[in-house]
Write a structure and sequence with these properties.
The protein is an alpha+beta fold. Helix 2 (about 110-125) packs antiparallel against helix 3. The two termini are about 30 Å apart. It is globular and about 45 Å long. The chain has helices at about 25-40, 110-125, 200-220, and strands at about 10, 15-25, 50-55, 55-60, 75-80, 85-90, 90-100, 130-135, 135-145, 145-160, 160-170.
């Protein structure tokens, strides 16, 4: 695994880069995102990438099916993001990405594809081969020959400002996913970098994300970037 330097603490290409210490309660995080989105729309705040961790909880996206909430052993929150039920908790890296798509092409599909590509590239930097699958939500990898989900994508775009983002399983308790049908895909297991034999700290993964962030932003801004063409996405 390559040695990665600590992630920058201030900004990348003019976008604020914020790493939160400790665990952030979900309602507080959503309120913070909503306030920042309003300020971005008003032109009084910069775009932001916010990396954090939540205590154990489940969130249901706009397509959540109540039958897929199997065991609400942790708090359950309705979420304005796309998608179905997912789990957040210790050992999982959350990235809330707040960009102004009005200034970046006004293309939601392109944004989601760029977000997927960024997370996949960061996982590659820590030695995990991952990929997206057309018409299937999430970030995928091979775990002992079995296809498994290692990350989730769930976004919302309001007045062209993005909210929510992605989660990546570094070393969560994977049994916690048993309370839901993760993203409505019962036939596929979930995995983590730890399960794949990679001992990756949050700081190391943050550094990998930072290393690939400029490419993510350039791909989002460049309508001629062919890497993001021809892929279906569920938002």
């Amino acid at each position: 695994m390559p040695t990665l330097s600590p992630a920058p603490a201030t900004e990348i290409d003019g976008v604020e880069w914020c790493v939160a210490p400790g665990q952030i309660d979900y309602p507080a995080a959503v309120a913070d995102m909503e306030a920042r989105a309003a300020d971005i729309r008003a032109g009084t705040a910069r775009e932001r990438i916010w990396l954090l961790e939540h205590p154990p909880l489940y969130t249901g996206g706009t397509s959540a099916d109540p039958a897929e909430l199997l065991d609400p052993r942790f708090p359950v929150f309705k979420s304005g993001r796309g998608g179905r039920y997912t789990y957040h908790g210790p050992g999982q890296r959350i990235g809330y990405v707040q960009l102004d798509l009005a200034a970046r092409g006004r293309d939601v599909r392109r944004y989601v594809h760029a977000l997927e590509a960024w997370v996949i590239a960061a996982l590659g930097e820590i030695g995990v081969t991952a990929y997206a699958v057309p018409d299937r939500v999430g970030i995928w990898t091979a775990d002992g020959g079995t296809e498994a989900k290692i990350g989730a994508i769930g976004v919302r775009v309001r007045q062209w400002v993005t909210l929510h983002g992605f989660s990546v399983n570094l070393a969560p308790d994977l049994t916690h996913f048993g309370g839901i049908v993760p993203c409505g895909l019962p036939e596929f297991p979930v995995t983590s970098t730890h399960s794949l034999g990679k001992r990756v700290t949050e700081a190391t993964f943050d550094a990998a994300l930072a290393l690939c962030c400029s490419t993510f932003l350039r791909a989002l801004d460049d309508p001629n970037d062919s890497r993001l063409e021809g892929r279906a996405v569920t938002v």
